[in-house]
Amino acid sequence: GDLSSATASVAMGFEGGSLTFEWTCDSSGVLFYQFGSFSSEELGGVATFQITSHSGAPLINSEGLESGASWTSDYTLSYEVGVEGFSTAFTNSVQESHSAGSQQSLSTAAGTFQAIPVTTNSTSTTVSDFGTFNSSWTSVCWFGYGVGLLRCESTGEGFSSVTELTSYTIP
Predict the structure, then answer these.
(1) Measured between alpha carbons, how far is 68 from 78 in angstroms, rounded to an integer?
(2) End-to-end CA distance of the chain
């Protein structure tokens, strides 16, 4: 793509599974991304995801991504999970508020970068055959100009995760 319209495929592998994303961008930033699919060798399960509605951008363009910037986004995610012959559908409505911190140096396995941290506070309501569930979480993700996502730390009710760039190529 170019600065007016581009797409990117992002694949994340982890011990026992994988997660894929399809990102769509324009001059305002990352418009949104489809989660694609999730697979787990241990659970024998697969989930497929579809963003059915969204507003705002989860990540604004690089010109607007500066210390003190803030914005909001929301989306509705529908997904079906199948494990060992059982399948059920979920609908998840998510509201997010984002704020950018000051540029800082960040080292990952892929190198050392000048990075902008973005803190995102999220709340969601999930509806399924099992009932309705509310949750909230906070993520701090660091982005490097010309590279993208470098590291992301998330914490919520009963979980925490860290995702970090280990290598990258720019075609």
Answers:
(1) 32
(2) 11
Dist. CA 146–CA 65, nearest whole Å = 13
Q: How far is CA 57 from CA 70, 74, 75, 96, in A?
A: 11, 8, 10, 10
CB 165 within 8 A of CB 151: yes
Paired strand residues for 122? 96, 137
Give every CB contact of residue 162 below 8 A, 6+ residues apart in sequence: 151, 152, 153, 154
Euclidean distance between CA atoms 44 and 38, whole angstroms: 11
* CA gap 18, 73 in Å, rounded: 26
Task: State mean pLDDT over 27-34.
Answer: 62
The structure's pTM equals 0.78
- Reported as a single tens digit per residue, the pLDDT across 109-123 is 999 999 999 999 999
